[in-house]
UniProtKB/TrEMBL annotation:
Recorded coiled-coil stretches: none
Organism: Leptotrichia mesophila
Highest taxon above the source species: Bacteria
Protein name as it appears in the record: META domain-containing protein
Positions of the DUF306 domain: 28-134, 153-263
Amino acid sequence: MKRVFILIGIVLMFIVNCFVLSAAKTVNLNGTSWELSEIKQNGLNLQIPSNTKITVSFSGNKINGFSGINKFNGTYRIRDFVLSTTLNTTLMGGSEELMNFEMAFLDILQSSPRISYNANTLTLKNRNGNTLTFRKNSNNNQSDSNSLSNLTKELSDTKWELVKIDRKEMKDIFSPNDDGITISFSGNRISGNSGVNNYFCDYIVTAGNITVGTIGSTKIAGPDNLMKLERQYLEILQNAKKISLTNNKTTLIFTTDSGKTLIFEKI
């Protein structure tokens, strides 16, 4: 009988140990959202682009976030502290610096990195030692996210007319009967008339910052003065980094890093 009790005790200890080991290997990121605070590749710390919030969020088996230029989403699985992902991204272009940074970030995220985390920090490190370190999103970050959603909603399905380009009034160029230069928003899409041609591109807004995708347009020729204005307009729009609504949300302003502006009024 004593041997029976000993055997039962051994079995119970084995079962308990199995549960403990299984629990120890479980990581639950569901419902959490994180902002990138450090990225290391090939032994070097890469500089996170200024005014750019790189994020990752987990919900159920879904993963999504912003990688610098593009949004990404997909599915994920965690096993033995290793994160496996299958991702899709939008296809916007940007500066070479941002494109290289985004590629490094997504490469590490998709390289089956090992997870270590606590209440405030999430670290993903792959076999080559390349590392993504995140801090948990705070209430302030959540407020930024809400502001982003509100701005995107306010712009959706609206149309605007350019009234000033880098301190130059459009009324000096277009007559009141002309359509002038316009911009419209639909979902994550921008379109409009740039003076001679129609143009179109994707865009992403993050907390007052805007990234404009590669602009495409029709190829119609026009008067030299309008063609010159069109090139100036599209260049400023392509390089715009800030976006804001003023005057009771009837004025829309795009601003580049060098301070050039496009000012629109709502139609």
